[in-house]
Q: What sequence folds into this?
């Protein structure tokens, strides 16, 4: 490689005045003492000073600006400038990123080049050669220095803006809106305005894009929207049926505008980007056909604020008991259990197993004008409507589940829902409430139904109190349903027999989804519950009082007809509701 030409770069280079060491102290990036330490490290760790300054926590932008000044170059945030379009043919964006060099402007005979490391003569030579090959008569190279993040963001922006856009402007799809956002911002950039500041509440396309991100999420039955900044762009993902899937990437330069837009909607402080914030959006204000709220939370990351929005249905359209996926036997037991006048009914399972959904369905069934139902939740996310009175506990102000229960006793309720039994105090209050004539619904973080009984004993609740109060325990999991549009049957293989520890024999007819448009090729659509319903009958109660161990209790439960989670899951696989894969993912084989 010819190394002579880049020396032309000197032509427009200002004479260096101060060293990086001097500038770092002068600009207050470090104290003279800190500098001394760093200089010693330069020798010891064989790193250059700018690297060490960044590692010590000085912002990259400040270090790069000081470095540029010490070397006699201009420092520039290139995302606020433009790139001459005929230079784009010279170098592909990926290669520009690889070299960390971008030609910005050619005004005969001066080529202006943005660089992260102006001392990289090889890269400078390469780009100059490309220009000359493309018949630009470059005589002088002017180098401007920028940070790597800014260079990459600039490359994304310039090349992306230049892409052909002949799309149907009437169709307000996410892609089109992104294009519109880009056009608006390009105009603003060309008017030498700062794109990020301008595109907040006044910029129509950003507002439309933000709304569309939410509407699209609801359309795809998403439960959460994730906005995740990276070095190169802002990734948008939806959580659908428990799994995250990427839906688009917003270019880096539009990141702040879109995040700011959501922060405005959620009434958060837009100038505060360094601490986590929480807020709520009444989305009906922005689109009256959507009866949803968004619970918004932000967390600062090195690349910007990470935003997660939980979609909350406020239409009162909770699922009914019939929609939960109970089999006939369990449904009958469950319906009988919720009708008893007092006692405790527990739903148990890991986070995200649908415990609240099931409890809400039960409460809706029981909500008639002659009963009073109260709830204590952490916090209230779904409005149940009807006559149900919902309240949020707030552990931060010491308003706990146990305190809520005590307060409820003075409100004369018939049915009480306690979000979760986490401690002995809540457990004891729940028992007390049930024994004084109330029906108490709650949840617990245990794996299976019988294990829940043992867990309560371990927590310190007296065995006879559990025997007296507990009516039913329902352990549950959420499994993904096979897509009904592309379901096919097949014979289980020998390998699957082994995987299922013999629960499914080779040759058994099973089902799976081939993947189609309706399920985005996944073969699965929607979810169903898998349930293990333990009704506390007389026999079980007697065993419990006698102090029987978990194993004995489990055997008795199964003998009296309890279907375990595993059995229920296999049953659903044989019926073609879920795939074997979902059986294995959600339940463990039972060693009997
Ligand atoms: Zn399908």
A:
């Amino acid at each position: 490689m010819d190394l002579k030409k880049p020396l032309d770069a000197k032509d427009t280079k200002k004479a260096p005045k101060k060293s990086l060491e001097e500038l770092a102290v002068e600009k207050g990036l470090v104290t003279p003492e800190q500098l001394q330490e760093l200089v010693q490290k330069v020798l010891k760790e064989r790193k250059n000073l700018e690297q060490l300054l960044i590692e010590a926590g000085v912002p990259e932008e400040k270090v790069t600006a000081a470095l540029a000044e010490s070397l006699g170059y201009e420092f520039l945030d290139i995302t606020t400038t433009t790139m001459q379009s005929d230079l784009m043919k010279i170098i592909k964006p990926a290669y520009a990123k690889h070299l960390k060099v971008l030609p910005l402007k050619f005004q005969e005979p001066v080529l202006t080049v943005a660089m992260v490391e102006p001392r990289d003569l090889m890269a400078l030579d390469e780009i100059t050669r490309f220009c000359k090959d493309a018949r630009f008569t470059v005589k002088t190279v002017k180098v401007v220095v920028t940070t790597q993040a800014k260079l990459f963001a600039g490359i994304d922006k310039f090349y992306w803006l230049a892409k052909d856009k002949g799309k149907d402007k009437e169709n307000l799809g996410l892609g089109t809106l992104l294009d519109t956002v880009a056009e608006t911002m390009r105009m603003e950039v060309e008017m030498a305005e700062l794109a990020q500041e301008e595109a907040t509440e006044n910029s129509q396309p950003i507002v439309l894009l933000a709304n569309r991100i939410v509407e699209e999420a609801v359309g795809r039955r998403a439960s959460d929207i994730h906005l995740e900044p990276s070095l190169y762009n802002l990734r948008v993902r939806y959580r659908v049926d428990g799994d995250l899937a990427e839906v688009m990437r917003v270019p880096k330069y539009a990141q702040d505008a879109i995040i700011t837009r959501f922060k405005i909607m959620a009434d958060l402080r837009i100038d505060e980007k360094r601490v986590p914030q929480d807020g709520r959006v009444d989305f009906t204000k922005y689109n009256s056909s959507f009866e949803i709220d968004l619970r918004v939370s932000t967390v600062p990351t090195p690349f910007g604020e990470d935003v997660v929005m939980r979609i909350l249905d406020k239409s009162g359209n909770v699922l009914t008991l019939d929609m939960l996926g109970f089999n006939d036997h369990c449904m009958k037991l469950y319906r009988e259990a919720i009708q008893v006048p007092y006692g405790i009914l527990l739903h148990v399972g890991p986070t995200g197993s649908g415990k609240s959904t099931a409890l809400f369905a039960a409460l809706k069934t029981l909500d008639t004008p002659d009963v009073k139902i109260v709830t204590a939740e952490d916090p209230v996310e779904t409005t149940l409507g009807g006559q149900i009175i919902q309240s949020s506990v707030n552990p931060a102000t010491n308003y706990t589940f146990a305190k809520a229960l005590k307060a409820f006793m003075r409100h004369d309720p018939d049915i009480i829902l306690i979000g979760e039994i986490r401690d002995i105090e809540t457990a004891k209050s729940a028992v007390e409430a049930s024994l004084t004539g109330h029906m108490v619904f709650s949840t617990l973080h245990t794996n299976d139904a019988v294990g829940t009984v043992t867990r309560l004993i371990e927590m310190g609740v007296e065995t006879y109190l559990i025997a007296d109060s507990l009516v039913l325990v329902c352990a549950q999991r959420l499994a993904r349903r096979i897509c009904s549009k592309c379901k096919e049957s097949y014979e289980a293989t020998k390998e699957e027999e082994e995987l299922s520890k013999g629960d499914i024999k080779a040759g058994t007819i099973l089902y799976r989804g081939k993947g189609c448009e309706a399920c985005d090729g996944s073969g699965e659509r929607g979810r169903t519950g898998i349930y293990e319903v333990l009704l506390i009958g007389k026999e079980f109660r007697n065993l419990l009082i006698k102090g029987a161990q978990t194993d004995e209790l489990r055997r008795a439960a199964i003998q009296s007809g309890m279907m375990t989670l595993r059995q229920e899951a296999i049953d659903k696989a044989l019926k073609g509701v879920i795939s074997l894969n979902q059986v294995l993912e959600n339940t463990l084989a039972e060693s009997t």
